[in-house]
Write a structure and sequence with these properties.
Blueprint: E1 2-10, E2 21-30, E3 33-42, H1 51-57, H2 61-64, H3 70-81, E4 85-88, H4 91-104, E5 117-119, H5 120-127, H6 135-142, H7 154-168, H8 170-193, H9 204-220, H10 226-233
Parallel strand pairs: 1-4, 4-5
Antiparallel strand pairs: 1-2, 2-3
Helix pairs in contact: 6-7
C-alpha cells in the first residue's frame, strides 16, 4: 500500500482570487512505514504574497525569485504521486490549489494521477468532535513532537502529519493485531494443557457390569431410555 503525505503553502487562501502555490512537499509511506523518499520544491508564483500568509509560513517573494515555476515541476510532481493514495490535512484546500495549477497547464486534474484522497482533518473531527483538530492540537493529543514547527512548512508538516495519521488509524489495527495475538496464545496454551487421549478397552467383566446397569435403568424407566428406542428403530 503506497501512500503520499502531502502539503502545500500558498500566497493566500483562495485560488479563485489568483493565489498560487509557493511550496509543495510529498512524503512517501509504503505499508505504513516511511521510506525516506520525498519530493520538496519551492515555487515562484509570479505574484505578491499576502501579509497574513507570510506570517504563517515565513516565505517571502525575495526568497522565491530564483525558484522554478510550477510548470517546471508539474511533471515531476505527478510522477511522484502517480497511483498512490494521498493523505492531506484539510484536503479540499490543497486539492483546490493543485487542481488550479494543473488546470492552468492544461494537465489532467489530481484525481487522474492518484488513487484517492484521505482528509485527516475530516477523520480527526469524526474521532474528536467539538475539539481543536489542527495539526498542532493533534500533535499534542497524540504525543507527536512538533518542537521544530516554529512556522508552517510543507516538508515539516508532512512529516508531522505522517505521525499523526498513523496515530489516527492505529486503534483499529492494534485491536486486530491484539486479538490475533491473544487467539494464537490461547491456542498454544490449550494445546500444551490438553493431555493426549489414552484409549483403554473395557474387560469382559466391565462390559457385563455395564450391560447389567443399562438393563436395570431400562427396567426402572419402563422402556423409555433413548438407547432402547434407537435399538428398536435399527
Amino acid at each position: 500500500m503506497r501512500q503520499i503525505i502531502l502539503d502545500t503553502e500558498t500566497t493566500g487562501l483562495d485560488p479563485k482570487q489568483g493565489h498560487r502555490i509557493i511550496e509543495v512537499a510529498a512524503v512517501e509511506m509504503v505499508n505504513r512505514r516511511l521510506t525516506g523518499n520525498h519530493l520538496h520544491r519551492y515555487v515562484n508564483p509570479d505574484r505578491d504574497i499576502d501579509a497574513g500568509a507570510m506570517q504563517v509560513h515565513g516565505i517571502t517573494p525575495e526568497f522565491l525569485q530564483d525558484k522554478p515555476r510550477f510548470a517546471d515541476i508539474a511533471h515531476e510532481f505527478v510522477d511522484f504521486i502517480r497511483g498512490a493514495e494521498l493523505v492531506i490535512h484539510n484536503a479540499p484546500f490543497d486539492v483546490g490549489f493543485l487542481n488550479m495549477e494543473l488546470r492552468l497547464l492544461d494537465m489532467a486534474l489530481l484525481p487522474n494521477w492518484c488513487d484517492g484522497v484521505t482528509d485527516t482533518l475530516a477523520m480527526a473531527k469524526a474521532l474528536r468532535p467539538g475539539q481543536r483538530n489542527n495539526l498542532d492540537a493533534l500533535c499534542k493529543h497524540y504525543g507527536v513532537d512538533n518542537a521544530a514547527r516554529t512556522l508552517h512548512g510543507a516538508l515539516v508538516d508532512c512529516e508531522l502529519l505522517a505521525a499523526v495519521y498513523l496515530a489516527l488509524t492505529r486503534g483499529q489495527e492494534s485491536l486486530s493485531i491484539g486479538l490475533e495475538a491473544r487467539g494464537a496464545q490461547a491456542d498454544q496454551v490449550a494445546a500444551r494443557a490438553r493431555p493426549r487421549a489414552i484409549l483403554l478397552p473395557a474387560s469382559a467383566d466391565e462390559l457385563a457390569v455395564h450391560a447389567s446397569l443399562l438393563g436395570a435403568i431400562a427396567q426402572e424407566s419402563k422402556g423409555a431410555c433413548l438407547w432402547s428406542m434407537e435399538q428398536e428403530r435399527s
